[in-house]
């Protein structure tokens, strides 16, 4: 770690950047990030790109390599037309969860902006990617680029062999089901024969030890149950119910060719790779914002950047963490940067200068005087939902003036259920956390059964929560895609999540 | 840390995606392009074009929960004076699906708006049109030269050295002249050294020494690479054939031609010009306007300056024939002519017109199009104009010309397409 040196030379002056300055800034930031904040990052790779390349990256979900599909071209056309009209600015950076961690920075950025971007992406996001439990569990940072390379080649090859139309059909369908193509829980491991035998033996022993002749006299189950058993046995063999639609189709769809299954697998793997990002928006951005804010201030304190650069950085920072109120025309939901940054800063405050209230709410770490260790722990072991549930403090709720609205479809008005006061804190916090729960955000779709004896109809259930049904038009279109992959008719039913009662049956979709 | 400058990477990484997108939406885009072209000033067509297409085939659906209904809970920021138990009126329901331009799914009926590049636009715009007899002439006198490989030569610059050929020559020469291989010499030397060491068989030793001497001399005499081996790649400058065309715009500007008629004619000429520029590297335009006398003018004068006088069509044709003779030899140029007129002609001029047309104009032309422009709202009485009847006779004789009537803007493009449609429509009327 470098010693604070009041006479340290400025790393740069003025707005122009060059590769030498980038390197120097990166090195100094690395010292601060690793030495003072204790961050643990993948090696960095910073790539300078143009606006057009940024648009490119936008359209292919931010990845540097991606297979070809018309939808990316469509997004590019839409983004481009908005950008050209000046209706949308471009992000300053895009960062990829890979090892080395690739950050794209725009050539238009000033040197102060590049400093901000390096601190934000190359250290903030980078640390989060490397340490957060979800990312560790679900993504393979070292392998992703190779995998994408493979995927791109595979799909190109498939297009050559089977034609654009055929590949496009599979990809369209797979994309429609992409958000339901992830494993939400770690998979069961394949059975281990030795382990199975041991368990079998244990059971047998237990049975013999507890043998009671009395059970023989109990009347046998009614004949009606037999059928139930058959159904459950069949479902067990098919691995049903299954909520990973793409996985199910890949393994069990009767009419797909091997290359089609491989394409489903590719889309599924990419969906799985992005699955953690959906669940950690607030934390990921909060972490990166907290890191760049701290580092920018440290750089200034240590005399590495001048007042002008700091002000420019703070100006951008302030824009990013701006949170308009619900009645502001600019309001469009809670800003993950604002919420994340406010919470991280609050954790820092609770660790260093806690109030009595904080001591009551956060006895574990209030006043422990080690804010960065506390933050690192939070970054590593939580996702948005659990993070908010654990760490959202009354102080933040008061600061953002959060309140809880309850909306019943039949009622004319919405009700304010609770506000940022003593009685409401827990309720507000719980509700907010719930709204970040991916399980509550996305429709719960499951493959329920297959009519193997009849017309091989696939029966899909949507488990309805809070009486919110599926968007009908979207569902109809998606169902068609599902039917195309399955190869036989598909039926979608909406069932009550609690009672299992059938609430609604959609029109059957036939493959075309 | 690694810094990589990607700015110089090839552009258009997403081109393949864009092509896939255009292919998928081809039908809708084509329709939109056609519509855009009928409603818009022709000059705008030449630029890139923003178009809107329906979402039909471009939806990216997924299972998602409806935006309405059910029980919902929100946490929102910015509370000012609410306390728990207060009620807030619901915001008015939005009609239809939300999501304006470029929303991720573009859900609902909204059109999808984006910009086509000039080339993409023109490709679709002029799709399945073709120029009759286009490849008839390629120009010999060309605008640029290009170098192409032309065998090998014994002289040349070192950068053009053909290494493979040179080494092959060298090898065959060395074999032919029995140049000793380095390995053979090394073996001899080793044998001599061994004999010297052991000291027996001095006879053999001296024999070997003589042999070594001869081999060494031979190796010196036969060089490894000789100037006769060296070959260079030869490049030859060849003229790049450039197809070129000239387009004659003939227009009647007499008093009977209204602004509306001129506008129609202009639109037709613009289309023809665009079309020609897509097909030929080099296109010249000659504007000839006529009343009772014809004159070559510039574009501005052609379309906008007014003139009064009678109508003698043959003057324009004579002027054109003169210009062709003077500047555009039919051997070198692809000649296209488009004539616009309201159909008036001095009756006595008709025979002269026919004669000129059949004898000097049509033989020189690739294609001659006659557009008869009419007033927008005036009903034609079914009576054919002088010029129309005259040309009809020529056409009946199987000439390489076409004629059409146009009354309003919307007809221009269909007529143009009809004239240049691929299934050679130009003989029919």
Which key terms come to mind for this protein?
A: 512 residues; alpha/beta; 4-stranded mixed sheet; 3-stranded mixed sheet; B: 429 residues; Rossmann fold; flat; disordered C terminus
Give a summary of the structure in a few sentences.
The complex is a heterodimer of chains A (512) and B (429). Chain A is of the alpha/beta class. Helices cover 54% and strands 10% of the residues of chain A.
Structure description:
The complex is a heterodimer of chains A (512) and B (429). Among the domains of chain A are: 19-132 and 280-313, no CATH class; 324-439, no CATH class; 443-505, no CATH class. Helices cover 54% and strands 10% of the residues of chain A. Chain A is built from 21 helices and 9 strands. Chain A has helices at residues 19-36, 51-59, 70-84, 111-131, 133-138, 144-162, 164-176, 193-209, 224-238, 245-252, 258-279, 281-301, 307-320, 336-352, 356-361, 371-381, 384-391, 394-400, 425-435, 438-441, 472-486, and strands spanning 44-49, 93-96, 101-106, 403-408, 413-418, 444-450, 458-464, 490-496, 502-505. In chain A, a hairpin with a 4-residue loop joins strand 4 (403-408) and strand 5. Chain B folds into 3 domains: 14-59 and 109-125, no CATH class; 158-235, no CATH class; 244-427, 3-Layer(aba) Sandwich (Rossmann fold), CATH 3.40.50.410. Helix content of chain B is 39%, strand content 19%. Chain B has a 6-stranded mixed beta sheet with strand order 10-9-8-11-12-13, with helices on both faces. In chain B, helix 2 packs across helix 13 and helix 11 (350-364) crosses helix 12. The two termini of chain B are 73 Å apart. At the A-B interface, helix 1, strand 1, helix 2, helix 3 and helix 7 of A face strand 1, helix 1, strand 3, strand 4 and strand 5 of B. Chain A: Residues 16-439 form the SpoVR protein-like N-terminal domain. Chain A: Residues 444-496 form the SpoVR-like C-terminal domain. Chain A: InterPro entries: Spore_V_R (IPR007390), SpoVR-like_C (IPR057008), SpoVR_N (IPR056174), Ycgb-like (IPR057270).
């Amino acid at each position: 770690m470098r010693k604070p040196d009041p006479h340290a030379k400025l790393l740069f002056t003025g707005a122009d950047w060059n590769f030498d300055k980038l390197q120097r800034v990166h090195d100094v930031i690395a010292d601060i990030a690793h030495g003072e904040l204790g961050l643990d990052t993948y090696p960095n790779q910073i790539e300078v790109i143009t606006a057009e390349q940024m648009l490119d990256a936008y359209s292919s979900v931010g990845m540097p390599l991606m297979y070809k599909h018309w939808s990316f071209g469509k997004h590019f056309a839409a983004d481009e037309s908005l950008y050209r009209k000046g209706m949308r600015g471009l992000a300053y950076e895009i960062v990829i969860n890979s090892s080395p961690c690739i950050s794209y920075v725009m050539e238009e950025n000033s040197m102060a902006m590049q400093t901000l971007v390096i601190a934000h992406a190359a250290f903030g996001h980078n640390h989060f990617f490397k340490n957060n439990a979800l990312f560790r569990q679900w993504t393979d940072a070292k392998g992703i680029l190779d995998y994408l390379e493979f995927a791109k080649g595979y799909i190109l090859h498939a297009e050559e062999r089977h034609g654009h139309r055929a590949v496009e059909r599979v990809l369209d369908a797979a994309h429609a089901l992409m958000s339901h193509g992830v494993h939400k829980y770690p998979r069961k491991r394949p059975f281990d024969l030795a382990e199975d035998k041991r368990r079998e033996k244990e059971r047998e022993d237990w049975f013999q030890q507890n043998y009671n002749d009395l059970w023989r006299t109990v009347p046998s189950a009614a004949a009606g149950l037999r059928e139930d058993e058959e159904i459950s046995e069949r479902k067990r063999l098919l691995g049903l119910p299954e909520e990973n639609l793409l996985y199910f189709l890949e393994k069990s769809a009767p009419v797909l060719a091997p290359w089609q299954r491989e394409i489903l697998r590719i889309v599924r793997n990419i969906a799985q790779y992005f699955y953690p990002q959906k669940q950690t928006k607030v934390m990921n951005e909060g972490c990166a914002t907290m890191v760049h804010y701290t580092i920018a201030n440290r750089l200034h304190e240590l005399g590495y950047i001048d007042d002008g650069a700091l002000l420019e950085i703070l100006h951008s920072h302030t824009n990013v963490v701006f949170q308009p109120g619900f009645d502001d025309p600019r309001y469009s939901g809670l800003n993950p940067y604002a919420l994340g940054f406010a919470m991280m800063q609050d954790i820092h405050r609770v660790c260093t200068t806690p109030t009595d209230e904080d001591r009551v709410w956060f006895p574990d770490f209030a006043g422990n005087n080690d804010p960065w260790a506390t933050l690192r722990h939070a970054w590593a072991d939580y996702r948005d939902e659990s993070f908010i549930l654990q760490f959202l403090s009354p102080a933040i709720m008061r600061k953002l003036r959060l309140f809880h609205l309850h909306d019943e479809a039949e009622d004319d008005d919405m009700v304010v259920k609770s506000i940022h006061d003593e009685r409401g804190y827990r309720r507000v916090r719980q509700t907010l956390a719930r709204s970040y729960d991916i399980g509550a955000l996305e429709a719960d779709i499951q493959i329920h059964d297959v009519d193997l004896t009849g017309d091989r109809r696939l029966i899909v259930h949507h488990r309805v929560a809070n009486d919110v049904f599926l968007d009908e038009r979207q569902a109809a279109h998606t169902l068609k895609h599902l039917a195309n992959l399955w190869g036989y008719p598909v039926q979608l039913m909406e069932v009550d999540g609690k009672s299992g009662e059938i609430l609604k049956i959609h029109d059957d979709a036939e493959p075309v | 840390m690694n810094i990589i400058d990607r700015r110089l990477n090839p552009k258009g990484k997403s081109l393949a995606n864009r092509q896939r997108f255009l292919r998928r939406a081809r039908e809708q885009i084509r329709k939109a392009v056609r519509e855009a072209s009928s409603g818009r000033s022709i000059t705008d067509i030449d630029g890139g074009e923003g178009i809107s297409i329906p979402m039909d085939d471009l939806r990216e659906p997924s299972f998602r929960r409806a935006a309405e209904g059910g029980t919902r809970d929100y946490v929102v920021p910015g509370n000012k004076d609410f306390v728990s138990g207060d009620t807030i009126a619901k915001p008015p329901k939005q009609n239809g699906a939300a999501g304006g331009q470029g929303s991720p799914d573009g859900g609902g009926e909204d059109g999808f708006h984006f910009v086509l590049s000039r080339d993409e636009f023109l490709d679709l715009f002029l799709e399945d049109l073709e120029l009759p007899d286009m490849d008839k002439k390629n120009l010999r006198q060309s605008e640029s030269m290009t170098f192409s490989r032309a065998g090998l030569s014994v002289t040349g610059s070192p950068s053009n050295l053909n290494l493979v050929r040179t080494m092959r020559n060298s090898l065959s020469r060395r074999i032919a002249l029995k140049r000793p291989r380095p390995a053979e010499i090394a073996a001899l030397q080793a044998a001599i050294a061994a004999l010297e060491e052991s000291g027996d068989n001095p006879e053999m030793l001296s024999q070997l020494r003589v042999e070594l001497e001869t081999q060494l001399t031979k190796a010196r005499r036969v060089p490894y690479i000789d100037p006769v081996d060296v070959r260079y790649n030869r490049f030859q400058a060849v003229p790049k054939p450039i197809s070129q065309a000239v387009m004659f715009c003939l227009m009647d500007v007499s008093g009977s031609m209204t602004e509306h008629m001129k506008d129609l004619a202009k639109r037709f000429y613009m289309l023809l010009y665009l079309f020609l520029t897509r097909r030929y590297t080099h296109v010249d335009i000659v504007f000839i306007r006529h009343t009772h006398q014809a004159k070559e003018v510039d574009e501005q004068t052609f379309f906008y300056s007014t003139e009064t006088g009678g109508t003698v069509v043959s003057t324009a044709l004579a002027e054109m024939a003169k210009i062709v003779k003077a500047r555009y030899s039919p051997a070198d140029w692809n000649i296209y002519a488009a004539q616009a007129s309201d159909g008036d002609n001095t009756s006595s001029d008709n025979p002269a017109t026919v004669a000129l047309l059949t004898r000097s104009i049509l033989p020189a032309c690739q294609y001659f199009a006659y557009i008869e422009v009419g007033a927008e709202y005036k009903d034609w009485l079914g009576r054919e104009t002088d010029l129309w009847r005259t040309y009809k006779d020529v056409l009946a004789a199987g000439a390489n010309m076409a004629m059409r009537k146009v009354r309003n803007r919307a007809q221009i493009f269909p007529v143009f397409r009809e004239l240049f449609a691929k299934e050679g429509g130009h003989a029919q009327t």
